[in-house]
Task: structure prediction
Amino acid sequence: MSAKRKEDAGPCLGEAEEELARTGFDLLLKEPFYAHLLGTMPREVTLKTETAGILWNENQVVVQVNPYFFLNDLKRRSPIQTDKLRMGVIKHLLLHVVFRHLFRLADRNEKIYDLAADLVVNQLVAPLPLPDGFLCPDDFPELDLASDQTLDHYYEKLMELLKQMEKSSDASEYGEGGNGQDGEGKEPWEERDWTKTGAPKSASALARYLGNTQADDHGGWSDGKDQINDNMGRYSVESTIVTAKDRTSAREWGSMPAQILAQLSEILEDRQPKLDWKRALRIFCAATGKTRIRHTVKRVSKRFGTRPGVKIQRFQRLLIAIDTSGSVDDQMLEEFFTEIHGIWQAGASVTVVECDAEIHRNYDYFGKPPKTVEGRGGTEFEPVFLWMQEQRRFDGLLYLTDGYAPPPTTPPSCRMLWVIPEDCAEYADELPFGEILPLPGHALSLEN
Result:
């Protein structure tokens, strides 16, 4: 970006913010779901991006828009065309959020991944338009890319094409230049003759993409190297998607494309606990014998001198110990926190303890998982039981673990359950003091 444009940025920032807000209102009238999704995210008009993009800042998703791109580059002769084009670009960004594309996989070629992600979402922006440079499957005619396919499908096809291009252009020039940059003294990729690939039109489209600035900015996406943080980020993003869906009327939601409906179904299914915690906690807490009397009517009866509306309420102050050792992988940790959320939703007061060979931290859970967990060393169960002896304020203990550690010797100060993934059941026979609840699968009987 030129120094002149940077100097002149101040006056146009306010105008761009107003136009971005107006675009959100236009979306509310035409595409309510995306307007509600946009409303859950911070928006930033900034020169940090050349165009527009989605930023994951390891805490939340931010919509970033360059003021010049939004005000000038997307301006058309007709104000109506301008408004539609701006809505199309914002919808494009939000579709990346719906498909959670901003959490890359570490073993992927970033540029090819980004293009495959664009091919997925650009098909779904219609009837809103997109600017030139936003590619669709039709731009790769020889690859015979079908519509409505997954990112993985497009990624594999594009990687095959890239290998053909590298082979026909003296092998490793793409690698030497790095992400589509040409090596010193080499002819730019977008200007080369790609007839030797057998897919010249597709190769030319890919070369232009690799050699030029992307239509939208993917620089704020995760690089996939911190899977724990990415998993927590996915959970946060999925929460915003569910919130936006809940704010969208059934009539409006029913008209959404099948691919979007499938994404939401997948999110809702993944967020469902594998166990029926309402039933499990009823049985589990019934054995503790700890209850209190709660009066549903506070005023004393003038006739009888007592408070009517007596209700027996069971205590459900649960300690949930989560195994954060190196033998528990990221996917298992994600499953553990899904179950913790289900326990909390069932009405229990939850305190979480993170422990590998020692306790690293403890905290009350209020519906949002932590960004990271501490530990990833060896495994010892004993520290949690010793810590419980000092606290003595819980009605029950649930230990979520893969079971791979020496059995503890200190008994718990309350009733307990071991929650162990089904494929780790071989370690369950060595665990004392409590019953075993397999995850996933049907729960073992708790009545005994």
